[in-house]
Amino acid sequence: SIPEAQREAWKRAQTTGFRGTEGFEKEFVRHVETTLGRSMFNCDENAAYSATSLAFRDRLILDWNRTQQRQTYIDSKRVYYLSLEFLMGRALDNAMLNIGLKDTAKVGLADLGFRIEDIIQQEHDAALGNGGLGRLAACFLDSLASLDFPAWGYGLRYRYGIFKQEIIDGYQMEVPDYWLDFNPWEFPRHDVTVDIQFYGQVRKQTDDTGKTVSVWEGGELVEAVAYDVPIPGYDTPTTNNLRLWSSKASGGEFDFQKFNNGDYESSVADQQRAETISAVLYPNDNLERGKELRLKQQYFWVAASLYDIVRRFKKSKRPWSEFPDQVAIQLNDTHPTLAIVELQRILVDIEGLAWDQAWEIVTSTFGYTNHTVLPEALEKWPVGLVQHLLPRHLQIIYDINLFFLQAVEKAFPDDRDMLRRVSIIEESQPKMVRMAFLAIVGSHKVNGVAELHSDLIKTTIFKDFVEIYGPDKFTNVTNGITPRRWLHQANPRLSELISSRLGGNGFLKDLNGLNKLELLADDKEFRKEWSEIKYANKVRLAKHIKDTMGVTVNPASLFDVQVKRIHEYKRQQLNIFGVIHRYLALKAMKPEERKKQLPRVSIFGGKAAPGYWMAKQIIHLINAVGAVVNKDGDIGDLLKVVFLEDYNVSKAEIICPASDISEHISTAGTEASGTSNMKFVLNGGLIIGTCDGANIEITREIGDNNIFLFGNLAEDVEDLRHTHTYGSHTIDPDLDKVFKEIEKGTFGTPHDFSAMIAAVRDHGDYYLVSDDFHSYIETHKLVDEAYRNQDDWVSKCIISVARMGFFSSDRCINEYAESIWNIEPLAMKDC
Ligand code: Z16
């Protein structure tokens, strides 16, 4: 750092970032003219977006610097959130709102000839995630910063985020999402690099003290380069860091030896092979496919992050025993589980600690969050693959397992089968490393993401571990969402109405403050303003539907929305079968009866994993039904069916505020939590749902007369499945009519949809579509009835919003901080 004598000069020269409209305009024009090399004669909206973002980035990085300096100086405990996915969405609007300068920018942009809404639209979503798990990580970062916690996120800087979805002739097509062309929100740190080793061999050697040590040598190196993304808190100078690692060939551009020997092609090939590691996000949600490159990604990211964390800890010169007092690491699912093994390796092989002392440090440091009970989503890696890629890590995994099983055997001496069941190594052909078990053994706390889910993991997939460790190691932290993005940013008018009645914006940082709204649930004037806002949001969505899909929908209809990843367990097929049932019912009515029906728009959106054939069939059926229904003259506005292309975070910000009812209809016991259910209710929409995930707690909070629940319960699922397979299996008669209509060819070639029907009729109906169909249809009738009484409906919406405080991700983060991380906020002194 700079010597004392010269620091005065630094202080005199310090930048402060802009203040006020004039200040913003100056910075904006400076960036247009110098950074971008343009002028007022060729500054289009895209350039204006760039200049606005750069002006805000300059502000953020100053707060970022101060936050980091203060955290380093105080050196209190930090939390590190390791996640392979961060589904951040757009950054500009969020930055303007969190810093509190959106109005300044709005006026400034207007002065300079731009509308702020158009400028915000220019930004490409940062889509480094699949769905709920990645978006949860993004909400957590917002809460951590807003609550002043010293916290870092660590992830991968994918060159391609989740693919863009195009719907062509009713089918999903995938287009690569190259998003890094211009990204003003990241700071490349070419000086922060780590060499990551792969392959090679392990050699045992004896050191001077006669101790045997393992040396991992040979193999290949890939360089990790850090890219930092500032994370601004809301209404606080705290600006945390999200560090994303990018891969490149170790030792610079390419191998100069090879290059000079005329082997240009192969030197470029090496370079490309290294860059492949961080090239693309795996597009599966709730599915693990065991590809070698995925394991490489995991180790690359985990090893770079741990190196960074350990390097930071070592600066303080504390003894190793204090590591868990300074560092908490949260594992977002099992994807970063190798961090447990890597830290043990660093402590034992490199720092020379004894195994037991190292293991005590490791297990005190880590916490593990489980996000699913679906067997196909639980990670397992072939032992041979781990051996090949990470030979020393496999040895350590075997040692961890050995000591663990020895302890289990001691505690349960007569239970041989227990050892087989809980072993980290599955004795299958080929042998597999069970990552969830490794994560449990290497952590001090394991949590699920909603109450039902946390109970289920304790009684099903992790039952034995509850016996071994006792129940206290397992806990629940129900998911939450950030009210800044999901209310204030997505629904500015509702946020403003609420703050006008609550006397300020305080609820955005203390969401329980919403409960005062309940007093206004019967206030006529308030209800009117509330409805007007909902209507305006529906008009905005209707325009989006017209512009993108070419379908005209009437905003006075009931908007019924299901947007989320397409998955059989989430049951979009149940929804579309229900839509067909409604269509048939309308067709069968006499015109005068038909006229009395409530107009509806069924809105779907979501991506199917590219290799998930059945999910793609579901998308096709939705579009096929839309194509028939939307042009049926008998039906008109009474029913429209829309599949919105390329559902993502920025589209969710338009969709959630515009919904009347949204669907969260997973087979009971399959959706760990769900978080869009929270977004819809917080935006004044009601929901129809099964007794699954967080729906149950939402019901408890908002009251069971404000939610439409239906379907079988989780506790009955197993028996029903058993009966389907071994007993008699009859299909619901109304559902059978729907199937027959599809088979008649009403929605195009029946063969295209035969697998979807067969899954229910012939293959055991694993997701209970038929079992829940009747209850689903009946519940939709209740929805129609309830919607006819608009006063009551709006009251329900207001009461629900008033009772949603619990689902703030701030509450969630405070629970993690207290019960898992043992960490305190570190507010910035106003300096
Ligand atoms: C994911 O998004 C989730 C779980 C999982 O194992 C993998 C992925 Cl990519 C989701 C859950 O399905 C959802 O219920 C939950 O709300 C979300 O994770 C956040 O916990």
UniProtKB/TrEMBL annotation:
GO terms for biological process: glycogen catabolic process. Allosteric enzyme that catalyzes the rate-limiting step in glycogen catabolism, the phosphorolytic cleavage of glycogen to produce glucose-1-phosphate, and plays a central role in maintaining cellular and organismal glucose homeostasis. It catalyses: [(1->4)-alpha-D-glucosyl](n) + phosphate = [(1->4)-alpha-D-glucosyl](n-1) + alpha-D-glucose 1-phosphate. Keywords: Allosteric enzyme, Carbohydrate metabolism, Glycosyltransferase, Pyridoxal phosphate, Transferase. Its EC number is 2.4.1.1. The lineage of its organism: Eukaryota, Fungi, Dikarya, Ascomycota, Pezizomycotina. GO terms for cellular component: cytoplasm. The modification N6-(pyridoxal phosphate)lysine is found at residue 679. PANTHER family: GLYCOGEN PHOSPHORYLASE, GLYCOGEN PHOSPHORYLASE, LIVER FORM. CDD domains: GT35_Glycogen_Phosphorylase. It comes from the Eukaryota. Its cofactor is pyridoxal 5'-phosphate. This is Alpha-1,4 glucan phosphorylase. InterPro entries: Glycg_phsphrylas, Glyco_trans_35, Pyridoxal_P_attach_site. One of its GO terms (molecular function) is pyridoxal phosphate binding. Belongs to the glycogen phosphorylase family. The keyword Glycosyltransferase applies. It is an enzyme of class 2 (transferase). Pfam families: Phosphorylase (PF00343).
